[in-house]
Amino acid sequence: MNPHPPGSAGNSAKLPAVPVQFDRSWYDDLEAKLNKGGPWDDWKLFNLAGQAEAASLVTSFEDMLCLKHLPEEQVTPLPHQTETARKVLFEMRGRAILADEVGLGKTIEAGLILKEYIVRGLVRKVLILVPASLVLQWVRELNQKFAIPAVAQKKEYSWQNDVVVASMDTAKRDPHKEILLGNEYDMVIVDEAHKLKNKKTTNYQFMLKLRKKYCLLLTATPVQNDLSELFNLITLLKPGQLGGQNDFASNFVFDKRIPKNESQLKGELAKIMIRNRRGDGELEFTKRIVKNIHVELSPEEMKLYDGVTSFVKDQYHAAGGDLNSMLSLVTLQREVCSSRDAVFVTLVNLSKKLAPDSPLRDKIWDLVGIIKTIKANSKAEKAMELIRGMDDKVIVFTEYRATQEYLLNYFRDRNMTAVPYRGGMNRGKKDWMMDLFRGRAQVMIATEAGGEGINLQFCHQMINFDLPWNPMRVEQRIGRVHRLGQQNDVQIYNLSTKGTIEEHILNLLHEKINMFEMVIGQLDVILERFEKSDSLEKSLYKILLESGSNDEIASRVDSLGQSLHSIRTELDESGENSAQNSRLQQLLEVDEA
Amino acid sequence: MTMTQDQIRQYVLTYLETTECQFLEKSPYHVTVKLSPRADKDLTNRPYYWGFIERTGVEPETMTFSFIFDAERHKQLEDQKASSQREPSPQEDTILGRHFGAVRPLPILGPGRIQREEMHFGSPRLKQIFAAARQGGRSVYLFEDPGPRQRSTLLPAAYEPWLGVRLKVEFSCDMKREELHFIGVSLRTGQIDTEFHTRVDGKILVPRMPENMHISPTRLSLDQGRQLVEQTINEKVQACDTTWADEARERLNEELALIDAYYKDLLQDPDEERKQAVMEQYESRRGEIRWQYEPRIVVSALGSGIFHLRSPLGTDIDRSR
């Protein structure tokens, strides 16, 4: 597409006329047909061809055409997204860093830009490099929202397609690397481009060698620790924009974390980077309103909880405190806070694995005996009451399949339509469930929150039937509902059972790190710092298994909360006060000129 | 530029008629057709099937399509139809039904299946029809219909052969603008018409030479005709505003200067091997930038043909003499 310009005009100053190339294939075609006496084409089709061409004609250099080419109803770009695309196209000339904060739609912006170039016939061959987990999501979005025929790279021959989405890790390896470096790309897009900050990595070296006309780098964190990260990113796009390495160091760097000549540097950055922030103009998110609901367990349920707890603890001590072999047992402990059904399934599976004469079997059957005595699920009753009371669409999240099944039954028996949603469903079924929820069901019961695709802006009530112990999963759940386009404040109900570990966890997440009301994107940073040694989930397991009493659990969870809290305060301060980080971050803020 | 839904409808209908598809249903908001073999080959993307049909000589089974031009209105129409026709069927209590409420009907596969397509500007199916029209309408050989009176008169009348070429001019740098031109050259007189569409619009053109007509001898060869077309378009293009190209070159030079500044020091590397690597990078960056910004103009033809037009009365004198 758009072959390289002929000849070498180079830097020569005075302007020769722009060279005109004539494509003469029509002439050969016509002459051959005249000699053979046909076959001739239809006059009507000749005219239709003309109309098609007239309708798709690019009539002006600077006019966004792509919006007219988008499938209606699939996507309506927000004003900041269209504005960003316009800037990249007409001011930055197709080479830019898109650095919006998380959740503002960098993918949409990139899609708009790509579409515009395709519509104008300036781009045909496209390479999109993203983390492996996002490949399919990109392919889907480009196809559905932009009608761009993107394919996921699967085999070597996939590279022949015009628009290919692949993971960086695949692309930089042989034999793929050779193929890609031998090619020329009209456009290259890199998602999560902060992985290109270090010059020495193979990622970076690979990108340097790749030949490209237009290039977009997407990242929410273009600079984190060191100014040179920014320099390296920009060098991939436009070497020299900040001068040579030495110029940059002497002009703009005071210390690796402290820039100098900031306003000038900002000016240079504005030529190549766009960062939309939450809270700029229209991009205000609605509030999150959290209500914790403490559910009193029935005596039978409490008995089961205690039974499971002591069973798990015994096993832990018997195994000599080895945490890794205990994971399935800890699951039991979590499931017992959700529903007896979930515990039952795990117990049965556990007993199947045991030797027929194992003494554990008896213990397990004792527990099953307790399960049988439980007649009602206190949480389900509470949830039902809540849902009846709100008379509005609501999504219920649980971690367990068995609980999901139970709730579906429970609600149906009480004349409430609920639809399921889980990770194992294929794409079509997921979409169908979404449609049903939107159209005719009041309740959706979901086990999966991760992965794109469930966008539930039309619903603003959610119930956490049980809480994941991994705060990121909680955040993912909330993110399904609390996202751009949500018009209402989001109501979050957390169900927790009194006198159980769940109470402590909720206390930790809610009181200590206040995660339910946290700014999107903040949690990752806190966890990243905290989990240098062990994941939060694992720390919780340990507390649970090693503590002798409820009070001990409480105090240890409390100290965990303290350390999370102090990380948070530290981060907040560094965001606002500390000279170092703030000056780095301030670079990314645009002054209203 | 774009098309309204109504224009799209007109366009698709014309295409379907021209390719002789069989119309099964038609409303202002949709049309259902059984494709003709030609349209099936254009649109359904199944070359193996058609290869098989052609080799074995079996009767082909073409696909049936519903093209929807106004999804909302069409749905209203369908709903009306459905509610007036169907008596309420008892709610079936299937297992799925118990789970999810009403169950969607399963899609029908195989023959009898009607593929549903919503047509809007930019939809892949419409683009495919565009492409089919371009592919199927590249070169024509046509005669102006002289009307019924000519057949009964005694004097044969003459046709003037014209070479008509529809051209697209692309002005590109990192951005792009396009123009369409339809240029005609009389192969008898060398007369040039830069608005050839106004000359042929409204005339009835037929593929076979009507009776009682003859073609005036040509003076210009086809190649001379081509040269005149190219010369004409070249003049037009050169007369265009060149600000865009000047600005593009300015941007190009700025970018090249930046690159030079960046690599200046690096190219002084005493290590020969490293220097070589840097040199390569430098050249490829410069190449990319020129590829991106350097202005260029490409002229290509979308279609061409020989048009035998009746000389307007009274001008049938050879003016070039």
From TrEMBL, chain A:
The keyword Hydrolase applies. Residues 87-240 form the Helicase ATP-binding domain. SMART domains: DEXDc, HELICc. One of its GO terms (molecular function) is helicase activity. Gene3D superfamilies: P-loop containing nucleotide triphosphate hydrolases, Tandem AAA-ATPase domain. Keywords: ATP-binding, Helicase, Hydrolase, Nucleotide-binding. This is Helicase. The keyword Acetylation does not apply. Residues 379-531 form the Helicase C-terminal domain. SUPFAM superfamilies: P-loop containing nucleoside triphosphate hydrolases. Coiled coil: none annotated. InterPro entries: DEXDc_RapA (IPR057342), Helicase_ATP-bd (IPR014001), Helicase_C-like (IPR001650), P-loop_NTPase (IPR027417), SNF2-like_sf (IPR038718), SNF2/RAD54-like_C (IPR049730), SNF2_N (IPR000330).
UniProtKB/TrEMBL annotation, chain B:
It comes from the Bacteria. InterPro entries: YqhG. It holds the Pfam family YqhG. This is Uncharacterized protein. It comes from Paenibacillus vini. The lineage of its organism: Bacteria, Bacillati, Bacillota, Bacilli, Bacillales.
